[in-house]
Each structure stands twice: as C-alpha cells, then as structure tokens.
Amino acid sequence: MGTTTGHTIGLVDGVSLARADEAAEGSGVKSMPVSENGLSVELLEELAALAAEKTAAGGLRLMGEGGILPELAQHLMQAALEAEMDLHLAEESARAGGRGSRSGGNMRNGYRAKKVMTEVGPVVVNVPRDRLGTFRPGLLPKYARRTGALDEMVLSLTGKGLTSGEIVAHLAEVYGMATSKETVSTITDKALESMAEWRTRPLDSVYPVVFIDAIHVRIRDGQVANRPVYVAIAVTADGYREILGLWTGQGGEGAKYWQTVLTEIRNRGVKDVLMLVCDGLTALPEAVGAIWPQTVVQTCVVHLIRNSMRYASRRDTAEIARDLKPVYTAVDEAQARRRLTEFGEKWDSRYPSISGIWERSWNEFVPFLSLPPAIRQVVYTTNAIESLNARYRRAAQACGHFPNETAALKRLYLATLALDPTGRGRQRWNNRWKAALNEFDVLFDGRLTANQV
Predict the structure, then answer these.
(1) NCBIfam families, per this entry (predicted)?
(2) Domain spans of the chain?
(3) Which of 60, 139, 273, 415 could pair covalently with 54 via S-S, beta carbons 3.0-4.6 A apart?
(4) Phi, psi for residue 332 in degrees, rounded to 5
C-alpha cells in the first residue's frame, strides 16, 4: 500500500438497530434480545459456537488472514454498503417524483472490489455502483484504503515507542497486512495538526510550580548531533502534573530564547507562576524576571545530586548521597553551609568537583531552604518528571535519530498522548497535596487563589 492511499474510513450507522426494533414492534413481531452493544444475542451465541468448533479443531484464529473477526467485519461492511446504496436510490427516486428505473431513473450497476485495511486485518468488499455514478458511500470514501481505527492503532504504537519498521512488521505478523514505512509516516503526520492545537491550547491562570527540563535527541541537520528538547511541566492548583509544551533548542540558549518560550506560555493564559524549577539554564532566571517578576527561580535539587554523582566512583555513591542529604535537608542556609563544609573536608581530596557544583549553584539552591516541609516535598519529588522523561527517552532512542525537529517533536507528542489522550499527561503529584496548597497560599501572599479564574 503506497502513500497515495491516505484517506481513512469512519464506520457509519447503516441500519439503526433501534429502528429495526421499532419496525418489529409495529408489525407484531417480537424483537430479539440484544447485547449492551446492540448486537443480537442469538448472533453472538452462533459466533461463540463457531469459535468453539474451530478451537476443538485446533484452528481458531480471531484476527488476520482466515480469522473470524475479518470475516465478520467484511460481512458488516458489505451490509452497510448495500444499505447505503438502497437509501441513495430511494432518495434519488423521491427527488425524481417516484419514477422507476424503466423511465430513466437511477439504478444499480454492478460492483467493484476494494481491499481495505482494518484494525482486525485486511478485508475485501464489493462496493456497489449506480448507473448515474452519483453514489458516494460514507463508509468507504473514494480513495479510502484503511479504517480510522487502524490509524489510531498506528498512532498508539508509535507513541509507545515502536519504529515505523517495527509497526510494519507487527501489522504483517499479527494482522496479515502488507503496508510500508511511508504509509506509517503518512498516518503519523496526521498528528501534526492536533500537535499544533495542543501547543497553543489555553492554560490555567496560575501554577504553584513549573519545572523546565530537557531531554536530548539526535537530529540530522547536515550531520547527526544531539539537540535538546525542553519540556515545561507544571503542578496544577489541584495537585496534578500537566505538560505545558515542548520546544526544541540548540543548547546554550540565551535570555532571548527563554523570553520567547515564557511569553508564549503567558499568552496562553498563565498570569503567574509561584516557583520555577530548572537545572543549569543560566539565562532562564533573567527571562523569568521579565515575564513574571515575582516568580522564585529554584535550582532542581535532584539534578544537583545527580550531577554530583557523575564525579563519584560507583563504590562511593551511596555514602556520598548520605553525606549530601544534611545539606539539602538543613533548616536554614547557615546550617546548610556548615554541612557542605563538613562534606568538603571529607571528600574534596578525592572529588573536589562535587563541592564546586554546590558552590556554583548556591544562590539558586538557597531558596529551597526557606520553604516549609510540605512545599519542599513538592519541589524535591520528581517521580512524575522522571517517569515522563523515561517514556520520552525510550521513544527517541527507538528511532536512533530524526530527520528534522518536527519529526522529533511529533514522536514525543505521540508519547505524551500514550500517557494521557488529552495530552496533559495528568498524574497525581503526591498524596499530601492539600497541606502543600495551603502552605503555597500563605507563603506567596495569597497569589495562588487570587489569580485563579
């Protein structure tokens, strides 16, 4: 199947079961019982008996070539097409004043076979034709070669980290479909429009905390190189994670770049951010001060710890982590300074770079020490971020590298939808949010509730 077969099919209501029941009641015929989905219980029992018979014979197959579901799908689609043609001819006859086919009205004119890729496997249906060529089936538009549900399956598999080649192989193995990487790419390109809407959707008026983090992907721009993709993750006023957006960068972005990103977020409705947490983005605090002057910029403590461990031997990491804990759990700056001095006295002879990391980040780290314990937990606990980054990294690494920035953003967006179909990536931040919420409102002089719409 080539890239020209890009149209998809949306199943239509050929003959309403409700109308069939009404007709049966009007004619005095007792309607047959149906399932919750409107299917005849008698039909379901017959299918179950057929499945049991094939199982006993050792040949039961649900999907793919020779499966029960493709055969059922073929019959249902064929019946729907026939019903559409009957309705079309009846409407044309009514418009022509009831004239029959013998007096020049429209009529059936054979069939044309059409192979369709469905979510249960390929099926072949005979599309009815009419003599005047005015029949346009809603079930199978002119160039449609696959169902909308199949497109959704491909988008879901992409979001879960499968490459185009792996999806092609999966469809061939499980469903007996012969497709191509180009077709998979055509399907996933349909996500670009929804991604544009997602990146410009309205946001809440105030967020207690916004984290800005980066993952690195490989993009071919003349030559393959690592490029950062920045993700803004907010904690909402009701204690959930929300993904605000994705932005590509070159690395080492300046204040102008960050002011553009933050202005975009502000223009989407964000009036205030109480705290913004980041790691080593030197030009970001300046941009934050221009957009939200009252926002506190805080260095991510988890990143400080992680960066410290890069300089330590694996055999010492557990002990170093224990010795660093008194620094970031200190009650105030003075105590934290004493604990860092003690750490340096013990470890600087072997790992002098670790103390240097904390010294260089001290001014952005200090605000953390003035926070109440409930807010410290919100700012420090990054499980919701790490789980998201892990999903993003799997999706990116599966591809090796991307041809351009748009392809990278598309794949990460689909990974976001795999977490949450709304694209917000909602996940409860912690189980003690109410305490933190009250502390935020007191510490930041009521800005959290005053700015909520």
Answers:
(1) transpos_IS256 (NF033543)
(2) 7-146, 205-450
(3) 60
(4) -155, 180
